Amino acid sequence: MLSCLQEFEASLGIKIVCSREYEPMGTAGPLALARDTLIDGSGDPFFVLNSDVISQYPLKQMMEFHKTHGGEASILVTKVDEPSKYGVVVMDELSGRVHRFVEKPQVFVGNKINAGMYLLNPEVLDRIEMRPTSIEKEVFPKIAQENKLFAMVMPGFWMDIGQPKDYLTGLKLYLESLRKTHPEKLMDGPNVLGNVLVDRSAQIGDRCLIGPDVCIGPDCIIETGVRLSRCTIMRGVKVKRHACILGSIIGWHSTVGQWARVENMTVFGEDVHLSDEMYSNGGVVLPHKQINTSILSPKILM
Amino acid sequence: MVGFTEQFGALLGIKITCSQEFEPMGTAGPLALARDKLDDGSGKPFFVLNSDVISEYPLQKMIDFHKYHGGEVSIMVTKVDEPSKYGVVVLDEKTGEVQRFVEKPKSFVGNKINAGIYLLNPTVLDKIEMRPTSIEKEIFPKIAKERNLFAMVLPGFWMDVGQPRDYITGLKLYLGSLRTKAPDKLAAGVNIVGNVLIDKSAAIGAGCLIGPDVSIGQNCVIEDGVRLSHCAIMQGARVKKHACISGAIIGWHSTIGQWARVENMTVLGEDVHLSDEVYSNGGIVLPHKEIKNSIVKPEIVM
């Protein structure tokens, strides 16, 4: 992970620092833990971004919104069809001021939920004790009571991608968004269907059919005659000839054998190798494994 | 089927006639029904061959054996490991004279069973009434009592190929026998593994891997990058690019789509079309069907 971070530091020209929890600190505790790194004395607010979501990250808009209302904390909210599954944010539609949070409401109180992206003034850190603390349940409600918490409705798509299935939906939304904003980043050609994103270092063989909703990472090798649809192929993966992968996630440096078939929300961890001609129907495979027999029905392989 | 008989008649320089039963006549009745065709007045014996078996058909040896013992009927018997599943033939090991038949014996009486290949003198026809009759249960025991029934142990392989799984086993045995007796009939090359029989009119694409134990019929088209093993591809079938078939029987004029996967004793009848990327796990599909969705577990599709 460290070398991955170094790569990004170099390519983006920024400094990346990790703060390590030795015991779980909840969703607010880690901020207190990293206090010294977060406060630089300038009084500038800092972003808090949950990494199990994907969206268009309208960070500049969020900064302007924060300046305009002058409150202590800004959060992004997103509209959903089934708010009862989430924590609903009840807010003033005009000003964005947050009244309260209701966790999994039984009756309809609103359809905006916490999108997991925050912009916080450094003073927020004074409210967080160095113990396991929930930012949504303990810290934000206090700030809301003081009328200092404001919510902005997320423009564009948002997806909680914590579950593999949702990860693939999030990928689809992300690629659709890319099609509108930066279509030149997507792959084109007779071997491509729909929206497909391929890292420039990946190699694609001839006579493949790739897409829709596929993303292929750095240094991947996709051999001749491969079919990929609705899947994510992580860095360094090799997919051998004539294989067919549908609706799945293939982890870093894994291999999918010749004529293999992978489908139905199969997830391979890092360094998983599926032998030639094997079938995986929803297998969830932990890292560093060789799979020599077919996985006929969804199950976890440890 | 008429076209088939005409084709083979021409090819082999013989006359093929069909006798049609309008009601089921058992295993002996049909012989009485076809009497006029079977008895040409010459007194020469005629073969009766059940078509749901496969063996090396040592017909000349059988003729010699029949002449030698001078009895009315010769039958082939074959050695099996589990005789209790079949009709066992109890015979004199030296002369081959059949003493009696025991259907599915509970205790061991012998390990030779009726292989379904007979050589009969025309006089047998006088013993068969024009009604549903069983040759094994009614006719042969009578002839055996008269000490006129003799059995020869079948040299080489034998298989009852009535069930699809056994058909594939029979294919394997047959190809194994070809490898010993007429290896030049089998396919060879970098794309071939083990014993493979390909009709000269079939077209095989580039980058395929075929075998072991595969037979490909007349006018089949096997496109590029196809994997076939343990299967029979009937006349006129087309297997599209990158598909993978293992342990299956693909019926006449059927199609297997691109990147499809077919396995686990799938049987497709005549004119069955499996769409691109579809999976069949032991599907049994009746004729004249289009299969657009995967068959995930063994079932009959009507």
TrEMBL record, chain A:
Gene3D superfamilies: Hexapeptide repeat proteins, Spore Coat Polysaccharide Biosynthesis Protein SpsA, Chain A. InterPro entries: GMPPB_C, Mannose-1P_guanyltransferase, NTP_transferase_dom, Nucleotide-diphossugar_trans. Residues 193-300 form the Mannose-1-phosphate guanyltransferase C-terminal domain. Pfam families: GMPPB_C, NTP_transferase. GO terms for molecular function: mannose-1-phosphate guanylyltransferase (GTP) activity. Its EC number is 2.7.7.13. Pathway: Nucleotide-sugar biosynthesis; GDP-alpha-D-mannose biosynthesis; GDP-alpha-D-mannose from alpha-D-mannose 1-phosphate (GTP route): step 1/1. Belongs to the transferase hexapeptide repeat family. This is mannose-1-phosphate guanylyltransferase.
From TrEMBL, chain B:
Pathway: Nucleotide-sugar biosynthesis; GDP-alpha-D-mannose biosynthesis; GDP-alpha-D-mannose from alpha-D-mannose 1-phosphate (GTP route): step 1/1. Keywords: Transferase. Coiled coil: none annotated. Its EC number is 2.7.7.13. It is an enzyme of class 2 (transferase). Residues 9-171 form the Nucleotidyl transferase domain. Belongs to the transferase hexapeptide repeat family. This is mannose-1-phosphate guanylyltransferase. It comes from Ceratopteris richardii. The lineage of its organism: Eukaryota, Viridiplantae, Streptophyta, Embryophyta, Tracheophyta.
